[in-house]
Amino acid sequence: MLQYIIKRLLLAIPILLAVVTLVFFVVRMAPGDPAQVILGDSASHESLTALRAELGLDRPVIVQYGEFLGSLVQGDLGNSIIRKQSINSIIADVLPYTVELTLAGVLLGVIIGLPLGVFSAVYRNSLGDYITRIGSLIGLSFPAFYSGILLLLAFSVYLGWFPVISDPDMDNLGERLHMLVLPAINLGLIMMAYVVRSARSSLLETLGEDYIRTAKAKGLPGIIILYKHALKNALIPVITIIGLYIGVLVGNSVLTEIVFNRPGLGKLILSALDERDYNLLQGLMVIYAFLIVLVNLVTDLTYGMVDPRIRKQ
Amino acid sequence: MKYILEVKDLSTAFKLQSGWYPATTDISFSLKPNETLAIVGESGCGKSVTAFSLMGLLPEHGSRIDSGTALFKGEDLLTMPREKLRKIRGSAMTMIFQEPMTSLNPVFTVGSQIAEAVFYHMNVGKAAAKKRALELMDMVKIPDPVNRYDDYPHHLSGGMCQRIMIAMSLACEPDLVFADEPTTALDVTIQAQMLYLLHELKEKQHMSMIFITHDLGVVAHVADRVAVMYAGTIVETASVTDLFANPRHPYTQALLKSIPRLDKDNKDISPIQGMVPSIDNMPEGCRFFDRCERKDQCRSDILPQLMPLKDNPTQLVRCLLCE
Predict the structure, then answer these.
(1) How far A128 CA lies from chain B's nearest CA (Å)?
(2) Whole-angstrom Cα distance, residue A165 to residue A176?
(3) How far apart are CA A132 and CA A112, in angstroms?
(4) What values do phi and psi take at A291, rounded to 5?
(5) pLDDT grade, residue B126 (50/70/90)?
(6) B117: which chain A residues are within 8 Å (Cβ-Cβ)?
(7) Closest Cα partner for A121 from A213, A211, A197, A193?
(8) Cβ–Cβ of A224/B88 closer than 8 Å?
(9) How remote is the C-alpha of A142 from its chain's centroid?
(10) Do A218 and B168 touch (CB under 8 A)?
């Protein structure tokens, strides 16, 4: 098992390398100049050149790339061009916000989505099934920034239950959870929609399998057939979907953080883009890629727990 | 108790897009304790539907039982409460299926799947259920049951999986076992082993068996009595010796003529001409009429009843020419 995890983590290295290389060059191809951003539009040509030299941006791109890789190998993401701070510490400051938001969204989506999907499959073509399916279709079609604004409007502006700006004090657990509710619901809605739909179709397929007929022929109680024999098999494709869409959720967390004015990787990435902070942008991309690789690994490990056919090879 | 199972006029219908159509019509047969009845017929003739109707395993949507009674140890399976039927199913009345590899749940160990049947019917603890499961695995001749107990179905061969299925079906010492083409998916040597095993266990446990197959060779091996089905009806029932020595229904006769034999010149093999009528276009009268060799002497507008022969009352035939 440990060997498998190590192997998978080693396999992540080429993926990470490809991502950082792509990001490194694409960022530099985009129009805009950090020196210009720092000094403003009225800056003279000489001062711009001087600042570029100071930031190391006047050297050949390939040299910059080599330097970046060199420090990356040592676990150092370098310094922010604009903020003059170590990127490691900038990211470490806001990473907990994003991780907590994404986890809460996933958890909410699964906890609500799975029972709804089972309900929908068991009572297929009933009124409840139609309502659930239409609901999940709406959840699927709403962009995160729009549903976020609606949530804010309803629960913060009209009802006043939650603050409009979620910038919690991380040491105050109550405040932290309170401010997490709306953003987590916003993300959870998307996850829930995917989980409902995949759980429903997967369970329907499983209920038609031969081994379900065997379980019935054995005279097992209906509830055991559904929750033990059918659900465990039906979960396998649902886990794949959850794993895949955690990636989508990470993307949606950017929008959610911006709408709810919540600190996190998402807000950081937006300002890094605005400021043409090449180094920070690169660093963030490395972290995102690493998170996705990690999620995939966890998904694959979960797989083995549910399905003995995948367990050991 | 003369009969363990008495089925009368069982009719089952399926829903197709344009309405309800009969899958089986007026199925009647009875089974004595310790007797094996083989139900033979080609694919789609309603053999499995008959068994599923009796076991209560028909799909909940799109199928219904239109008429009939099925007395199992004196109680009607078709009208009893679902919960009562569930308790009989898997204990007193069990079933072995055609595809052993897909009939076992892939995510549970084979041993636990046997123990489960014991646990839910025999009111014993988990440990006792496991002990019983190991005994059963030994009984169906699985080598090294203790180690095989924790194997998953994908670790075992088709023949081994079928042994697990058999062990599962025998878990609560049933009075009646339905075997729905239990050897069709296995290769020939394993088939023979499996038939031998089933026969041996049947004798040891004093149970009755309904053996569904399309293989007349298998019928000759296992059956005491045979019911031949065609297009949703039973066309002939007889003891296995009478059926092979003196088939009376033209379909049975044609069926026996179409088997290739090692000891005869196979030029005599004659396939049955024509096609089985489809479920949504069943003839009003005799369903075999269009394909019958003797239709010139007969009429197509009357549906014959399953009647005992005058010279042999244990042989029942559904044919106007045989009455």
Answers:
(1) 18
(2) 12
(3) 11
(4) -60, -45
(5) very high
(6) 218-219
(7) A197
(8) no
(9) 17
(10) yes
Q: Which residues of B fall within a CB distance of 8 Å from A221? A: 86, 120
> Are the beta carbons of B103 and A218 separated by less than 8 Å?
no
Residues in chain A: 313
Chain A, nearest residue to B117 by Cα? A218
Tokens matching residue B124:
């014993």
Q: Tell me which residue in A211, A217, A308 faces B89 most closely, judged by beta carbons.
A: A217
The stretch B98-122 carries a mean pLDDT of: 93
Of A214, A221, A309, the CB nearest to B104: A214
* List of chain A residues whose C-beta atoms are within 8 Å of the C-beta of residue B106: 211, 233, 307-309
The domains located in chain B, with CATH, are: 5-106+174-322 (3.40.50.300)
Inform me whether the pLDDT recorded for A165 exceeds 90.
no
* Higher-scoring residue by pLDDT: A87, B260: A87
ipTM of the complex as predicted = 0.89
Choose among B104, B177, B95, B169: nearest CA to B137: B169
> Quick check: A204 contacting B, CB < 8 Å?
no
Domain A91-311 classified CATH 3.40.50.150? no
Residue B7, Cβ density class (10 Å: 0-12 exposed, 13-18 middle, ≥19 buried): buried
Instruction: Read off the pTM.
Output: 0.82
Tell me whether residues A220 and B154 touch, CB distance under 8 A: no
CATH 1.10.3720.10 in chain A: give the residue spans: 91-311
Q: Are A266 and A249 in contact (CB under 8 A)?
A: no
CB-based burial of residue A242 (10 Å sphere; 0-12 exposed, 13-18 middle, 19+ buried)?
A: buried
B154 contacts A217? CB cut-off 8 A: no
- Compute the distance between CA of residue B96 and CA of residue B171 in angstroms, rounded to an integer: 12
B107·A221 Cβ contact <8 A: no
To which H or E segment does residue B319 belong? none
Contact A210 B88 (CB under 8 A): no
Q: Alpha helix locations (H) across chain A? A: 2-29, 34-39, 45-55, 61-73, 87-122, 127-141, 144-151, 173-207, 210-217, 222-224, 231-259, 265-274, 278-306, 308-311
Looking at residues B28-49, what average pLDDT do you find?
91
